[in-house]
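Researcher: Structure prediction, please.
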Amino acid sequence: MYDINKYLNSPKSSTNDPHGHFHDVAPWSPRVALKIAAEESIELENDHWQVVFSLREIFRETGPEWTARAITRRLEKEFADAGGKRRLYELFPRGPLMQGCRIAGLPLPQGTKSLSFGSVH
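Model: Predicted structure follows.
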């Protein structure tokens, strides 16, 4: 288990990249997620929250060493009964990692080569 609190207390934890992704784990709450989702024109529903909390749990377990490929596989497996990858793209049109990580207040995972990773656009 990775200690997410170590990153919450980091001095650089509140900095974002130019696209709004946190460099590290910033202070986050569901209220922050709602605000970010509104900026992304997404109205968070149960399935959105499931992805957001799954991403936060994966980060808590692995820390900043998490990789895009492993996360994508895990999310696809978790959502297999609901439609898998197709459902994830319905929830997050710009990509489940791109928008999901931003809403979850997490940095993009390693291996994300472009900001459109996982996007259908």
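Model: DSSP finds six helices and no strands in the chain.
Researcher: Thanks, that helps.
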